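User: structure tokens for this one?
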Amino acid sequence: MAQSSQAAGGTMSIPALLLRNASEFGDKPAYREKQFGIWQSWSWKQTEAEVRNLALGLINMGVNEGDFIAIIGNNRPQLYWSMVAAQSVGAIPVPLYQDAAAEEMAYVLDHCGARYVIAEDQEQVDKVLEVQDRLHQFEHMIYLDPRGMRKYDHTRLHDYAHVQEQGHAARDELTPELQARRAKLNYETVCVMLYTSGTTGKPKGVVLSNRNIIETAKSSAEFDNLGPGEEVLAYLPMAWVGDFIFSLGQAYWTGFCVNCPESPETTPSDLREIGPTYYFAPPRVFETQLTNVMIRMEDAGKLKKWLFDTFMAQAKRVGPDILDGKPVGLLDRLKYKLGDIFIYGPLKNTLGMSNVRVGYTAGEAIGPEIFQFYRSIGINLKQLYGQTEASVFITVQPDGEVRADTVGVPAPGVELKISDTGEVYYRSPGVFEYYYKNAESTADTKDAEGWVATGDAGFIEPDTGHLRIIDRAKDVGKMADGSLFAPKYVENKLKFFPNILEAVVFGNGRDKCMAFINIDMSAVGNWAERNNIAYSSYQELAGHTKVYAAIQAHVEEVNRSIAEDEMLSGCQVHRFLILHKELDADDGEMTRTRKVRRRIIEEKFADLIEALYAGKTEQYTETEVTYEDGRKGKISATLEIRDAAIAPIRTQKVAAE
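Assistant:
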């Protein structure tokens, strides 16, 4: 409660929280980063000095209040400091996805009118320079890593360290200006602008205030009892609202330490070294980790595999109850303790989750079996439901009420309601201010009373108050016979299988559902090697007869599961094909947060959809692809199309009996 009173009495901006932390937490680590295999550390005092010198440097460069400063790169302490330094001088940070192509960056940079860019390295600098002629307001770029930059024209390019040095040198002259700008910051000041993933169109700039971020960080931290002793690993894109609220909002509110991995490739090993107490990952990360575990167990010796299977069966039976503090018999507890010594403990250590006290997943629905696997071995994994427009949190799962089939109850301070059409609406202190330069979309999304339309269809369970999400409202439709069509529901069931990386289901307005499947190259490739199946490419492996047989078995198992749900039983997959390429953000088929762009896929692969519904057994197709160096090319293939067995609907069986 002491922190609550502080929020009203001076810590009403992120820079103000930084000053508080430098005073209260002083020498406690605020940031760590692994460089050349060694962890470097910065205290809160050192962090405040770093941010102050950069803020002075930005004023020295001519940054004005209200300017937009784009920030591009992997998770680096200096880039987090850049966001706080921008806020300190009254500017607005706009983080961009570091893996975005130059064309994608051009839209965001032009839309927000960024005068300044802070980029991590030569790769990101090159992307901006490639499109700079189209950026009429762009003036200067600061780069963090000087490698490869020596021969560039430095008229508009500046070394990050040099900007800090110049700011520090001019501190006597510029400090009064910095203090004056900081003093103007309050709850209504814009804290950050984050762009949506653009699933259905151009990304929108979501303007979030200090009130949005701080109130959300405060309430969510109190909900999970987060304190200054937490350790987090910051590895998700800085342009994503989740990383901003966890690695900046909550970190500055509680004073916990943010750890940045050396590179995306070293993240798994860095995760093990840090052993975070508070951890977030999208479902794909948990799915990939579990796939890797299962692959390793397939290669294990008989004794090791027997121990794993035996103790995992015990964990599945009693693990979630033990985690939730429910009564479990003494013998079962002893068996589980043995399992923890031989299997669960070493497994959690391998995953880097030995110390996780609170774990979250969100973004997409996670397969219930995957969810239960992690909880069964003692990891307190929970689901949350959120949006950029909500400053993340809409619903959360309280300890003891964690379920795989719901996304929990309204987060503290959040109100929920369901419209007549089944769409979920919410209202909270975290609700965004507006979409930048898009008053029409703002009015369509947020009404005069502050209620926001999520675009998701769902319902609130009357007995528990838990929210269940069915699908995106725009994707929920009707089959030709009037039964409900919810593609995401089916796709998530398909993606539970380690062999399936992605699935896209079609059927709105039609009499049958059809599906595209992407195989998981690591899981299927490992299986192929164990079975001495030779292949030279993704396309060749995806088209193999035995791979098709395995995928067909998965589709038919999902059909049997769907048949048990009376409301969605019409969504069984009648026919499917395995795509000859992975769906890729570079090809426009997915967003940078790996959400399927359904309409683009329908247009791009119209010939394959037509073949599925025409009853063909194969179809030749050509597809344009984008290579890593940006070049365009075409790949062609003749794809096999298979039928899948349809399961009898359970309610019909009961009626017949």
